[in-house]
Amino acid sequence: MSASKGNTQGVGFHYHIDPEATAHDLMNEATEWLQYARSLTRLLADLIHETDTVDCQRMAHSLEAIGALTHMGVQCTAQAHARMCWEKGGASADPAR
Predict the structure, then answer these.
(1) Fewer Cβ close by (within 10 Å): the C or N end of the chain?
(2) Quick one: pLDDT at residue 4?
(3) Is the model more confident about 95 or about 62?
């Protein structure tokens, strides 16, 4: 097996999450990113089924794109979860709520 020429230190991009976004907004955004990843995966699979040869470089870039979209969806989900926990913790600490 050959050594990877790609980024082995993790994701090579940064996605800024709006600090004003609600948990609901973040979950909707996560769903959108994951749907993009799913659609790209289906497109890539269809293209592979229709071809006799596969360009490994393009395949690697396509898989990296799917990974990036999935990562963005996971990040949005994690932020939504953190905000829900923060809101729940704030509600239980505040006796007026």
Answers:
(1) N
(2) 41
(3) 62
